[in-house]
Design goal:
MetI-like fold, globular, two-stranded antiparallel ribbon, mainly alpha, 12 helices, 2 strands, about 300 residues
Length: about 300
């Protein structure tokens, strides 16, 4: 009888503990949802307040951005131009290097070499972004100006290089995970047909992991779009419409940093531009992340 009572008490205690853990985890999940809703609400309310004073057409299609000058101009295209210039330039650097290193680590590297190189590569992701910014200003830009003296002190090329280095570990790590998840039977079948290692890699493994690779590309570009301190220091604060990587530009994140220094009166139209630019950034990165998830879910079951 006593043993039965003890067993019931232990069983009841275990169930109580499980329910408590379940409720705590639910609260954590709900907290993240409420924080996201709060962020969206603040951005949306301030954005709507901004558009009571500024034309939506002027904001979306204007080519001059000078909200703190007289007369003010609120065309967001120069900031979008600078942001996309950095994102595209960094992608040109990071995506080929990332997929190449992922293929090497997954298909060619010895296990001992892989266990050494992968952590070293991922260390780049742990370097503070402001360090990358100072690296761009003190090393990358002087190096570029030695080759092209007409390059501005603050320029998009320097920002592209350091942001490309920053997102390289993301591309490499996620792409390698996608490559290693390809079933070994596909490789063995290709080898059985007489394929070389290069043919197996390029014609079997990479196409089979293409969905994961493309998802890593999109996430990396999204990361580049949202980068702040490195581009603030390296690219400058000149909102212009240009395709010249060697000119000074300004990205959306760099503008937010500039206005957030405290010189802009709270509640003014110029102050509200922080939130409307934040909403543009939020929308861009949200769309890219949704697209990345769609690619993964759309093609994932094909290779399960």
């Amino acid at each position: 009888m006593l043993g039965w009572l003890c067993a019931r008490m232990v069983n009841g205690y275990s169930k109580l503990k499980e329910r408590l853990i379940e409720h705590i985890l639910f609260l954590y999940a709900a907290l993240s949802i409420f924080v996201t809703i709060g962020i969206v609400f603040i951005l949306l309310s301030e954005t709507l307040s901004f558009f009571r004073d500024v034309s939506v057409f002027e904001f979306l299609f204007g080519t001059r951005w000078s909200p703190m000058f007289t007369p003010p101009r609120f065309g967001v295209l120069p900031l979008v131009n600078g942001t996309l210039l950095v994102a595209i330039g960094s992608s040109i650097i990071a995506l080929p290097l990332g997929i190449s290193s992922a293929v090497y680590l997954s298909e060619y590297a010895h296990e001992r070499v892989r266990s050494l190189l992968k952590p070293l590569l991922e260390i780049l992701a742990g370097v503070p972004t402001i360090v990358y910014g100072y690296f761009a200003v003190t090393f990358v830009t002087p190096l570029i100006r030695r080759v092209l003296p007409e390059t501005d002190i603050f320029n998009a090329a320097s920002a592209c290089i350091v942001v490309g280095i920053m997102i390289l570990p993301m591309v490499s790590s996620l792409s390698e995970d996608a490559l290693r998840s390809v079933p070994r039977s596909l490789r063995e079948g290709a080898y059985a047909l007489g394929s070389t290692k290069y043919e197996v890699t390029t014609k079997v493994v990479v196409p089979s992991a293409l969905s994961g690779i493309l998802a890593s590309f999109i996430l990396a570009v999204s990361r580049a779009i949202g980068e702040t301190m490195a581009v603030t220091l390296a690219a400058g604060a000149t909102p212009v419409m240009t395709l010249n990587f060697f000119e000074s530009i300004q990205t959306m994140t760099a503008y937010i940093v500039q206005v957030s220094l405290g010189d802009t009166p709270a509640g003014s139209v110029a102050y509200k531009t922080i939130f409307v630019i934040g909403m543009v950034l939020f929308t861009m990165t949200l769309v890219m992340n949704i697209f990345s998830q769609w690619i993964r879910s759309r093609y994932q079951e094909v290779y399960d």
